[in-house]
Write a structure and sequence with these properties.
Layout lengths: L7 E3 L9 H5 L5 E4 L2 E4 L9 H5 L5 E3 L12 E6 L13 H10 L4 E2 L2 H17 L7 E2 L4 H10 L13 H17 L6 E7 L2 H8 L11 E4 H11 L14 H4 L6 H5 L5 E5 L1 H12 L8 E5 L15 H19 L31 H17 L13 H10 L8 H20 L7
Parallel strand pairs: 5-6, 5-8, 7-11, 8-9, 10-11
Antiparallel strand pairs: 1-4, 2-3
């Protein structure tokens, strides 16, 4: 299947083999073998659901340490709008952004501002004739990977626009290079992320050959450093440039509201997203032109690498949105001319992780065997075998990665049969043995 990079990884020392993760993984990417969880790379979409659900914190996300910024002469932070919901509402956006300059960054560019450019481009796409509707937002990389793995028929429905993170990185580098007369190679741009999927999309981008982002730092790893400096921060620099439209992207429904169409649907939480995508695939969704789909419950505010409770963060973001609305008097902020394309330069393809064999004849035979094995299993989906469902165990057996006796019910049947055979043999012992 090729090489895979994943931000979501397993700390085996902490894993207790409890099977909580296998039941919640949306792509059945986890198995428990020999008392430890195992992540199947080609199935994982880095949604972070296992990070959220693991009671032993054995799942973690690989992101960059703050020290990575020292590799560049000029360092720019591009925080996700989620960052505003992590601090008490008495702290202004400008103070929060200036605090980044107190912990080592030279400048800050809001991803929320870049989101307004993406919203504008999406509005134009929606107005074009011939667009395959419903258009599905590509802002959440976990959802894009999910479509690649499970919903190949919907790939053409994806909006082929770069994420606000990538647009922010491009804009920040270009503006800084022109204004400061700095070589672009000396400028490092670092995304402050609430989720693992963004780290994966930077290290292994799907929309371009190389990301414009130079590093990804989690909100969790940087939060305490910001909190320690925020009360002593000088906020004389006006770094807050985004309007309410971009800030609102942090919350589920924010992007949908920004594209200004009455026929949009916003869904959050990876399992809810799957339900909606299944409905779209089966032509059960009508009169919807745009779908905003976010893997985390509550949107990016509910990301596994954020620190504040999602509902508390929602209240805080709302205050920032209302404050910006009051200043803007409800009008959208004008966009400066931006001559760089934000359209994908690469095409994404279906990742057939469910394919049993490259030879169609062999695949059909394996499928028949899979169905026969699955029919003979109890159908309880208890997870005791280390697979998320009986069908998943049947698939593992066909692939040669598991045995039928991994099912405790089949094992009990085998033990019972062996016990009966031993009793029968004992009764038929040779007369010379007495």
């Amino acid at each position: 299947m090729g090489e895979y990079f994943h931000s979501v990884t397993l700390d085996e020392a902490k894993c207790k083999g409890c099977t909580n993760c296998i039941k919640r993984c949306p792509t059945e990417a986890i198995r428990v073998r020999h008392g430890k969880a195992r992540i199947i790379n080609e199935r994982c979409i880095d949604c972070g659901e296992c990070i959220r659900i693991c009671p032993y914190h054995a799942k973690k996300a690989i992101t960059d340490d703050l020290s990575v910024i020292d590799s560049f002469k000029y360092k720019i932070a591009i925080p996700a709008p989620t960052i505003y919901g992590q601090f008490k509402p008495e702290y202004s956006r400008n103070r929060i952004l200036n605090t980044f300059c107190s912990i080592g960054f030279d400048d800050v560019y809001e991803v929320a501002r870049a989101a307004e450019y993406v919203s504008d481009a999406t509005r134009k796409l929606l107005s074009e004739d011939g667009a395959k509707k419903p258009l599905i937002s590509s802002a959440c990389p976990a959802v894009v990977r999910l479509i690649q793995v499970r919903f190949p028929n919907l790939i053409d429905n994806l909006i082929k626009l770069e994420s606000p993170m990538e647009v922010a990185a491009k804009m920040a580098k270009k503006k800084t290079a022109e204004k400061k007369k700095i070589d672009p190679s000396d400028i490092g741009v670092f995304f402050i992320t609430p989720c693992a999927a963004k780290a994966t999309s930077v290290k292994a981008p799907y929309e371009s050959k190389q990301s414009s982002v130079d590093g990804v730092i989690s909100i969790k790893s940087i939060y305490l450093k910001l909190l320690a400096k925020i009360d002593r921060t000088d906020e004389s620099r006006q770094l807050a440039q985004a309007g309410f439209e971009g800030i609102r992207w942090a919350n589920s429904g924010g992007e949908g509201l920004a594209v200004e169409t009455d026929s949009f649907l916003a869904v959050d939480g990876i399992h809810n997203v799957i339900s909606i995508l299944e409905a779209v695939e089966n032509d059960k969704i009508e009169s919807v032109d745009f779908i905003e789909a976010l893997a985390c419950t509550g949107g990016c505010l509910g990301g596994p690498l954020a620190v504040e409770n999602v509902y508390v963060a929602k209240t805080r973001i709302k205050k920032h949105v209302e404050a910006s609305k009051a200043v803007q008097k409800g009008s959208r902020l004008p966009l400066e001319p931006y001559d760089e394309s934000i359209v994908w330069t690469e095409e994404i393809a279906y990742k057939p992780v469910l394919k049993l064999d490259s030879d169609i004849e062999k695949a059909m035979k394996k499928l028949e065997t899979l169905e026969r094995i699955n029919k003979d299993l109890p159908g309880l989906d208890c997870g005791a075998c280390g697979a998320p469902s009986c069908r998943a165990l049947a698939e593992d057996i066909v692939r040669g990665n598991a045995y039928e006796t991994d099912c405790i019910f089949k094992l009990r049947e085998r033990v019972r049969d062996l016990a009966a055979q031993m009793k029968e043999l004992e009764e038929k012992s040779p007369p010379t043995m007495g």
